[in-house]
# Entry
Amino acid sequence: MTQEAVEKIFEAVAETAPHIYSGLLHRREYIQTENPSSEDQLEADIWANELLKEKITCIDGVGEYASEEEREVTDCGEGLSVAVDPLDGSSNIPTNNIVGTIVAVYDEKLPCSGRNIVSAFYVVFGPLISIVRAENGEVNEYVVEGKKSNGIEIYLASEGLKLPEPKLYGFGGNNNWTENFCKFENKISEQYKLRYGGALVGDFNQILHYGGIFAYPSCKDAENGKYRLLFEGNPMAYIAEMAGGASTDGEKSILDVEAEDLHQRVPFHAGNTELINRLEEELKN
Ligand code: FBP
# Structure
């Protein structure tokens, strides 16, 4: 039953992706509302959430739907809990840079630990629509093609993705880093090439493909960083770890961070294991 429901959730997200992509054109304006994390919302944020919510809540085997755009969890029956960031990096929409969708499927009521994830995936709206999916010890990448008939075609693009030798780094929040994180960044910047695009999906995706480390760390003005644990931190940490890498909140795997609040934030670092170990050492000093 669980696997059947996970499959349907994946299909629902894949089917919705081309609609979200093509619908962005007329929904690029900010509206007068904020999400539960006090961030301004675009029309596209609300609309993408409604599309995904409608498709996911009617799946047999889904018990809860939660969104970065909604304050409360929606109860929709018995079964898995689905946490969605409908449009990650939406401040990239007005400038036409990368955005995406992040989905975490938990086998426990929310809020719960990242150790309860049974599947995680993210959609990248880039030159192509791709989906990276982690489950049962494997990370695969798919390309989704929307058809004129409103149907979709899904192609398996890469099987068993593993983080290669490190090449890149990308760190958010640079004007407020702590002293220890600045020291770490100084060393890393001498060894690796910087790439930062302002959307977790795009920034993490290039680390997954080229190797390296991505972080939005604890900052002087935001001790817990920027990312929401249940919607962003956990699913990306789960994917990084399943691809042979590691994640940390600075001390331990993000998957071991206790979840107390639906919208709680977490300092996020993920990438090749040796770099995550070096970072943890540096932050201890
Ligand atoms: P949302 O757009 O879903 O709120 O995500 C937050 C986010 O846009 C991340 O995708 C991105 O990595 C980060 O904020 C960018 O932050 P900053 O503007 O500080 O670089």
In short: Residues 2-158 form a domain with the Fructose-1,6-Bisphosphatase; Chain A, domain 1 fold (CATH 3.30.540.10). The chain has two domains: 2-158, 168-284.
